[in-house]
Amino acid sequence: MLYKTRGIILHSVGYSDAYSIVQIFTEEFGRVSYLTSKSKGKKTKVNKSLFYPLSVLDLEVEHLNLRDIHRIKEAKPHRLSTNTLFDPVKSSISIFLSEFISKVVKDIQPNPLLFNYICDSIRVLDLLERGAANFHLVFIFRLSRFLGFYPDMTEYKKGMFFDLQNGEFVNYKPFHPYFLNPDDSEIFALLMRMDYSNMHSFKFSHTDRINIINKVLEYYRLHLTDFPELKSLEVLQNLFATV
User: In the beta sheet, which residues pair with residue 37?
Assistant: First the structure.
């Protein structure tokens, strides 16, 4: 049976000489694997050039519940824009975030709130004119709301420790090793006040930005099982050394 849905491209891998498998986070079905042809024939309704990281597409798909891999009958851009695709900073952010999302969004069930958050964030990135160096920090931090472990900062005061394991600020050093010292905790608290509208106002050194993202990813690893190292992180960090 054919269905129409929006989908966010996460990544693709080669399946055979003729086909690839594309991982797509869809609005209607959650995360789904689709078999796509590598052919570039003029008559195809599934143009492979559309399948770049975090591309948002309008899809017509063949979906059968008993299948692990489904088929795409037609694909076209949800919005006509190439700002991200041809901007080296934005495209690098997209590659990193598509890898990140693919590691944390594993649920095959639909999640409209999460889908809309990601879709709206992609639109913000595409239209962004300043503050790109902080975009991924805001995105990842706020994504934790939808995964159930957004930190509690209601009690935060300068000089407190952030307990990474329990997701809260505390007055005393925890008895386990998963915590931030008061200086790093202050940066974490700053990060929690950032959003897409004000992130350009927050200035971090290259060293601070590397430290922040590593701590945020450590926080994710404590709250998600099987969260691996991200291959694209080093490329993104090197890029922002010059931004």
Answer: 19
Locate all alpha helices (DSSP H) within 4-87, ordered by sequence.
none
125 within 8 A of 86, measured Cβ to Cβ:
no
Q: How many CB atoms lie within 10 A of CB 102?
A: 17
- Helix or strand holding residue 59 (H, E): strand 56-62
For the CA atoms of 176, 137, 230, 72, the dihedral, rounded to the nearest 10 degrees, stands at 130
Alpha helices in the chain (DSSP H): 88-104, 112-127, 132-147, 182-193, 206-223, 233-240
- Band (pLDDT 50/70/90 cuts) for residue 34 is very high
Q: Torsion angle of alpha carbons 212, 216, 221, 226, nearest 10°?
A: -90
CA dist., res. 43 & res. 211, Å (int): 49
Q: Give, for 199, the enclosing helix (H) or strand (E).
A: none
Separation of CA 93 from chain center: 9
The model's pTM: 0.90
